[in-house]
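Forum: Protein Structure Q&A
Topic: Joint prediction for protein chains with partners

I've read a bunch of threads here and the consensus seems to be that you should model interacting components together rather than docking separate models afterwards. I'd like to see that in practice. Below is the full input, 227 residues plus whatever partners are listed. Could one of the regulars post the assembled result?
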Amino acid sequence: ELKVEQNPLFLSMQEGKNYTIYCNYSTTSDRLYWYRQDPGKSLESLFVLLSNGAVKQEGRLMASLDTKARLSTLHITAAVHDLSATYFCAPTGNQFYFGTGTSLTVIP
Amino acid sequence: GAVVSQHPSRVICKSGTSVKIECRSLDFQATTMFWYRQFPKQSLMLMATSNEGSKATYEQGVEKDKFLINHASLTLSTLTVTSAHPEDSSFYICSARDRTGVASYNEQFFGPGTRLTVL
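Posted by a regular:
Agreed with the consensus. Here's the joint model:
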């Protein structure tokens, strides 16, 4: 079974700061997704990373994938309050394996 | 496109009753649907994989007689929580994978979730 660890589990950061969330997984995966979840809501798809070295950016979020290291990162640039949410990575094969989640709070 | 709906969005029931949750793919055909459970401040836990026209595959530790899954058509899967107890209270999320699975990179499209509270 593919195991997924995210680091950190909880992150409190000030507006305007940068930070990176890490996603490590245990075995080879076809692709990796990043999702955002707001309290009481379902998942919102952010990125899908399909190959080694893939990098995708949307607004203040940038995701990358290193399949050799089995590592994906989600980098936050100049955080704003609206980014406060829980972020999940999900490497996939026939099914999705969700990471532990990172609860992000951006403080004004 | 790729919209998945769930009904109801919220349900409160008494202990011992059964609750049915519907998951529909609105604009695509889903040969495979997945059911997840999420406890507060935890990750999503896959409960079962549901293939149209066949029996669901349950993850280890999930009681198939308690969580009945039916995937009778390419656009509808149902999860019935039988004889619900307070410990079954959770957020249940379904997802659907489209029939081809090619253009969407086998992506799963998630429903909005159903909050179940068992008193």
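Chain B has a mean pLDDT of 91.
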